[in-house]
Amino acid sequence: MFPQDFDGVIAGAPAWWTSRQQIWQFWTGYVNYISNASEIPFEMFDTIGQEVLRQCDGQDGLVDTIISDPLGCNFDTHPLICTNSTNATSSCLTSAQLATFDTLTNDFTQTNSTLVFPKWFLGSEPDWYMNIDGGSPNIIGLGYIQYMLGLGPEWDWRNFDDSVVQLSEELNAGQADASDYDLSPFIEGGGKLIHYHGLADGGIATGASYYLFDQIDRTLTPKGVALSDSYRFFPIPGMGHCTGTATFVNAPYYIGGISMTNNGQYSVRGYQDAEHDVLLALMDWVENGNAPDSIIGTAYANYTTEDVVTRQRPICAHPKQARFNGTGDPNNAASWTCQMLY
C-alpha cells in the first residue's frame, strides 16, 4: 500500500491472504474433527512425520533427516495402514483416517473445485498441532468466523459450508489481504524483498508462499520485470512455523530471522555476516547491490545458548535446491551446491 516506505523488506512465513487463511485454519480442524471415525489423533502426527521422512529424505542426494523437496516426494501411505496385527490407531491409520490425511495434504477447495487455500507440505505433520488440537477447530479460524465475519458465538462449526468462504471473500474483514501482486511501484523505487518460509510449517501452509511467488511472477514477468533482481524467495527445509525443527529432523534453519530464537540473540553467533544472517543479506543487497543466491542456515546443539554448531547448509533461492556434492562433510555448507532440478 505504501511502496516508498521501505527500500528493503523481509517477509517470513507471511500471513498475506487473511480472508482465506483464517478459513483454512478453521477448515483443517473441521476436516479432522467432523467425524470421530476419521479423526487423526494428535499422537499420530509425529508417527506420520517420521514415515514421511523415511520415504522423502534422500531426494537431495543424502539421507540425513531433512526433506529438501517435499513436492517431489511420491509418498506411499501403505506403511501407515492398520492391519490385523497393528489395529491400534496410535501407531497406524484406518482407511477413514487416511482419507483425512489425503484431504489435509491437498489444496483446500470449494465443492466446485475453486481454490480456497494452498496445502500443507509433506514433512509438516509434527507441526499440525498448531491448527489441529483440542477436539474442535482452531480458535484463530473459528473466532475469525464467529466474530470477524459476524456469525456470532452461537454459530455451530459443524454447519460449515462454502457460504462461509464466500462471505469471508466478500467482507475481507479488516481489509487485511495483501493480495495485490503488482509490486512494480516497490521495485521501481529500488526496493528489495527477501521472502522465506519453512517447508515444514504447520501454522501457515507453505503452499501459500509458493502460490504468492507464482502470482507475483505471473504479474510482473509479462511487464518485462526481471523478478530475481528485486525479489527472492527462500524455502527453508525442515523448519516449522517461523522457527523450530522437529527433534528427529534438527534442520539447519537458523538465519537470524525474527522469532527464530527464544532469548533474543542478535544475528547468528559466530557468523555475523551477509552469508548467514538474513537481515545483513538484505542490507548488503539494498546498499551494495549484492543479491543473495543463498543464505547459510545453521543448526545448534542448543538454540537457546547457540553454543555448538552441529550443521550448516545453504538455503537456496527458489527454484534452486541444495544438492549434496557427494563428498565432504554433509554438515558443512561447502559440501552443498544450489542447483536447478531440471
Automatic annotation (TrEMBL):
Entry protein name: Carboxylic ester hydrolase
Family: Belongs to the tannase family.
Source organism per UniProt: Botryotinia fuckeliana (strain T4)
Keyword 4Fe-4S: no
Name of one Pfam family that matches: Tannase
Highest rank taxon of the organism: Eukaryota
GO MF term list: carboxylic ester hydrolase activity
Organism taxonomic ancestry: Eukaryota, Fungi, Dikarya, Ascomycota, Pezizomycotina
Keyword field contains Transmembrane helix: no
Keyword set, alphabetical order: Disulfide bond, Hydrolase, Serine esterase, Signal
EC number: 3.1.1.-
